[in-house]
Design brief:
18 helices, elongated, alpha/beta, single chain, 608 residues, 4-stranded antiparallel β-sheet, Rossmann fold, 10 strands, 3 domains, ABC transporter transmembrane region fold
Length: 608
């Protein structure tokens, strides 16, 4: 058992509003490479097919030159007219087929690497998000975050595709063409091509760097509009309650207008970039063709040479034109991927300590020992809170709203790490054990039950994945919801809707109770577990919970004092401090804060 002194302090959470350190494009690529390294043999083989495809592609203009020149035969030579061009035509078709064949082999070879890499990164991000603290998930914007993940996953595919399927092939093709032009013709052809390439690349990079700011603004506005729409739709009922459909539409339209303006700026600068690129290519094409035409007129070049130069320029023109698009996309994909990697870089505020051991629950003795905690350092929530929950006993915590009752449940689950003191289960400090084993030992019925958009059976069985239908029905019966479920047309296959909105508050809470009963953990937390139930169902559920809690350690957080009169001990919490504690009768006899709360609630029930 680890001593409390050896428990490391929790890492400090990032300060709110702290600036995010910008990561360079090379640093982003460096984080991507380890995922690709496991597929290095496939990468090598794919590059081999790529080189062969480009060699075949560059051979096409050479073949066209020979084909055109072979047509200039002497009259009366039917053999040359029939045999030589036919052989070249067949060879031309073979080269075209080879280019396509090697390209498809490259795609097929590398598909596993691309999909595998995207899957690995997406899964790691998903796991990391679940590992982040509750504080992160309370502050995040779901719509914007899901867009970042979606774009980041798409960026993995695009970056790998563009890098290995476009940039490398283009470089190989440019090198081969420049070499052939310099060897077969005068150096001017190579110099014109090099100059065009230099101007093209310089212009593309400089303009793209300038316009990246507009693309970033567009993505930010897109994420903001998406977040606004998701947030409004998730709060559909609230919008309807206050008749604010037009208000929500106006707010959404404000974001859409900002997105429209950012998109127009992005498109305007894109058109400027495309026009400049086309101008550079056009000047290079005219210069090359003019020089080749002069060569044919002066007899230095054949008609086939002119065709070959033109074919080379067309072959270079297409990838070069695409290279501008590729650079823009790579820059954007690196930005998108960096956003997803930024999620991976988020500090785990609550993490397992080095060498943390699984929790061993022998009796289930829970102790809060001088616990202090604050969500925000400027506003402490709990002050030196101490109490025990003996093995197999039920301890209730009561008090006014905002006293810190539900915070105790969050701390016991270790959604946050405490600022001072210790919380132990059977003498084991929570920070010294693994979070997985801790949460496996605790079951909770929360005050605000949120269900998955799936069937009733799925939501109950979520308490113990793999439970049989019979076990699910038994848990539902114990939670007094089996009759209701059976009476519905689809029974346990009934869909509960987004966040369980198709069920009433009481039905959702009974599903949550059934889910926890199915889990059957040694430690139970009931956080206002019957707050959404009517009096008849509340009494039935209370009796069932009392039965289920027999032999288990239970922490009951309650507002209605009538539900906790049988607790082993009642802890009265006020402003984050324990002001009274003891059994129900003893607290009434003290005539203190608890007795005052009891009289107020009894008077309220009599007057209702």
């Amino acid at each position: 058992m680890r001593s409390l002194a050896t428990v490391p302090p929790a890492p400090a959470p990032p300060a709110p509003g702290a600036p995010v350190v910008a990561r360079s494009d090379w640093a982003t690529l460096a984080k991507l490479l380890p995922y690709l390294w496991r597929y290095r043999w496939r990468v090598g083989l794919a590059l081999g097919f790529l080189v062969m495809a480009k060699v075949a592609n560059v051979g096409v203009p050479l073949l066209l030159k020979n084909l055109v020149d072979s047509l200039s035969i002497k009259p009366g030579d039917p053999k040359g007219l029939l045999v030589v061009p036919l052989g070249l035509v067949v060879a031309y078709g073979a080269l075209r087929l080879s280019t396509s064949l090697f390209t498809e082999l490259r795609e097929l070879t590398f598909a596993k690497a691309t999909e595998g890499t995207a899957r690995s990164i997406s899964l790691q991000v998903f796991r990391h998000l679940h590992a982040l603290s509750l504080r992160f998930h309370l502050e995040r914007q779901t719509g914007g975050m899901t867009r970042d993940i979606e774009r980041g996953t798409r960026a993995v595919h695009s970056l790998i595709s563009y890098s290995l399927y476009s940039i490398v092939p283009t470089l190989i093709e440019v090198t081969l063409v420049l070499t052939l032009l310099a060897v077969k013709f005068d150096a001017w052809f190579a110099w014109i091509t090099l100059a065009a390439l230099a101007f093209y690349i310089t212009f593309t990079i400089s303009v793209t760097e300038w316009r990246t700011q507009f693309r970033k603004q567009m993505n930010e506005m897109d994420g903001a509009a998406h977040s606004r729409a998701i947030d409004s739709l998730l709060n559909y009922e609230t919008v309807k309650y206050f008749n604010n459909e037009d208000f929500e539409a106006r707010r959404y339209d404000e974001n859409l207008e900002k997105l429209r303006r950012a998109s127009l700026k992005s498109q305007t600068t894109l058109s400027l970039l495309n026009t400049g690129q086309q101008l550079i290519i056009a000047i290079a094409l005219v210069s090359m063709l003019y020089r080749a035409t002069l060569g044919v007129a002066e007899g230095r070049l054949t008609l086939g040479d002119l065709v070959m130069v033109n074919a080379f320029m067309i072959q270079l023109y297409i990838p070069l034109n695409f290279l501008g698009v590729i650079y823009r996309e790579i820059k954007q994909n690196l930005t998108d991927l960096d956003k997803m990697f930024t999620l991976l870089d988020r500090n785990r505020e609550v993490d397992d300590a080095p060498g943390a051991q699984p929790l061993r629950v022998t009796a289930g003795h829970v102790r809060f020992d001088h616990v202090s905690f604050a969500y925000d350092p400027a506003r402490p929530i709990l002050h030196d809170v101490s109490f025990d929950i003996p093995p197999g006993k039920t301890v209730a915590v009561v008090g006014p709203s905002g006293a810190g009752k539900s915070t105790l449940a969050r701390l016991l689950y270790r959604f946050y790490d405490i600022d001072g003191g210790a919380i132990t289960i059977d003498g084991q400090e929570l920070r010294s054990v693994t979070q997985s084993s801790l949460r496996a030992a605790i079951g909770i019925v929360p005050q605000d039950t949120v269900l998955f958009n799936d069937t009733v059976e799925y939501n109950i069985a979520y308490g113990r994945v793999g439970a049989t239908r019979a076990e699910v029905e038994a848990a539902a019966a114990a939670a007094h919801i089996h009759g209701f479920i059976s009476a519905t047309p689809k029974g346990y296959d009934t869909m509960v809707g987004e966040r369980g909105l198709k069920l009433s508050g009481g039905e959702k809470q009974r599903v949550a109770i059934a889910r926890t009963l199915l889990k059957n953990p040694p430690v139970l937390i009931f956080d206002e577990a019957t707050s959404a139930l009517d009096s008849a169902n509340e009494r039935a559920i209370q009796a069932e919970l009392k039965s289920v809690s027999q032999g288990k350690t239970a922490l009951v957080i309650a507002h209605r004092l009538s539900t906790v009169v049988d607790a082993h001990e009642i802890v009265v919490l006020e402003a984050g401090r324990v002001v009274e504690r003891g059994p129900h009768t003893e607290l009434l006899a003290k005539n203190g804060r608890y007795a005052q709360m009891w009289r107020l609630q009894q008077a309220g029930q009599e007057g209702s």
